[in-house]
Amino acid sequence: xxxxxxxxxxxxxxxxxxxxxxxxxxxxxxxxxxxxxxxxxxxxxxxxxxxxxxxxxxxxxxxxxxxxxxxxxxxxxxxxxxxxxxxxxxxxxxxxxxxxxxxxxxxxxxxxxxxxxxxxxxxxxxxxxxxxxxxxxxxxxxxxxxxxxxxxxxxxxxxxxxxxxxxxxxxxxxxxxxxxxxxxxxxxxxxxxxxxxxxxxxxxxxxxxxxxxxxxxxxxxxxxxxxxxxxxxxxxxxxxxxxxxxxxxxxxxxxxxxxxxxxxxxxxxxxxxxxxxxxxxxxxxxxxxxxxxxxxxxxxxxxxxxxxxxxxxxxxxxxxxxxxxxxxxxxxxxxxxxxxxxxxxxxxxxxxxxxxxxxxxxxxxxxxxxxxxxxxxxxxxxxxxxxxxxxxxxxxxxxxxxxxxxxxxxxxxxxxxxxxxxxxxxxxxxxxxxxxxxxxxxxxxxxxxxxxxxxxxxxxxxxxxxxxxxxxxxxxxxxxxxxxxxxxxxxxxxxxxxxxxxxxxxxxxxxxxxxxxx
Amino acid sequence: xxxxxxxxxxxxxxxxxxxxxxxxxxxxxxxxxxxxxxxxxxxxxxxxxxxxxxxxxxxxxxxxxxxxxxxxxxxxxxxxxxxxxxxxxxxxxxxxxxxxxxxxxxxxxxxxxxxxxxx
Lengths: 518, 119
Description:
heterodimer, A: 21 helices, B: alpha+beta
């Protein structure tokens, strides 16, 4: 019965996707426009120079016998009044309701609102608030998605209703999740989302978006029903995996300070020094005294690399590749690639653009994965120690996250501030039917809110700081992975070349004049 | 453990230093008047798609001429100007926002020029 559900779901999704893809894409006028000025040369060179110089500084510091250290300073802010409010049911469910409301709004506005993309709130909620805004919040503040996730909240309500009515037979099936599947469903679903974001030409059409959301909801609810809510969310739900990854960089965490609680709760959370960190399932069932909310340094959550599976590693590399691809498609390098492929794929007519973009995305992911795998070989060779490549690859992949994150934030900074303002008029007229609920429907986007020089400085700062974090994390990982400090230091030369190279790619993309590919 | 604190302090200092740099990111030359022109003929901008550069605070006048009726639209600033066939007109704007803005013919969604306002 299991397999039939999966086949049915897959078949249905494919059919609908195919139908949508075959419909003529509506030209999206106005939404997603970017007015960014490329970096002037001094910023580009200055950023590049700083990156290289600081990398050597860190190399020098590490050479002086650092001890690998999983500890990090953490300030508890969960005691007292603030703490009890923040973890209280009223607070958490207020946020959950906001998530459900936004979800409902996307569906309603998507299906019943105007097809004009910059007059429909569903487009702005998904591409600005969700994809960019939530990525920023997850990385810079904390994992708020665990509360905003509408599928989680709606399923919890469903579970509560079922318990109330006591329909013994209808409870979630709780079939065991096959170990082999691991994070692959999340990886695959995220790749589909990344494709929609970067390649699919109908990605700004409200009805198309709403349809994808509906399909994804069906897949997610089915998965939670069959395998259990928490099991599915942690490994197979694409956005939980994505935002949790970004939130590892954030300066906040929840922790359960009682080892026995961590051991008895159902999921397999990592336990460090009798504490399990960011294990939300344990946090919910743990007694009040053992629940803590901490402020920690940035990137501390990326330090602990005990158990990253191969599928998780694939997910991380895919996130890196897709985040870079979006910016890359606005450069002249991409235009050259595009123009060369154009005559080959002409037969696809109006969908030629989508096809070439899809090839580009696949190629980008392929390049990232292959370069990384080859690099890991060099890292092992440089260390002089014999270690299995796959395990080394898994250990080091998280250290690349700050570079991708920094680029993502820099790339979308002015976009968030400018297109983000669309929320103001859209709250008064979400469906584009001419309403004015809050009196803000006539609001015109204020371009002067962001000055190009500030954007350049923030972008360079973010990229340099991201790079520093990455080099630091890689060094810490090397010290834990290799037996001698000397081996660890030598192993980092190839890694440093990769990181400097990757950071340069990000800087290069930001310095390119934005080319329109109409 | 102390090395880590040194490292983390260095990062924080750098972050603060950058913040000050950003706050200090003001100051420009005096505003000037600039004049550009777009001539639209035979379905194309004469001379190709040009890039007009100006500084923040400048007053910009763009002279338009076209052989067919066309509506010129500056994106971002969202200024529209309809010009009759064979007619001439002028668009004026105060360049108070920085960025790279496409100038388009509304009817055909064709880019005819780019306006770059530098800080």
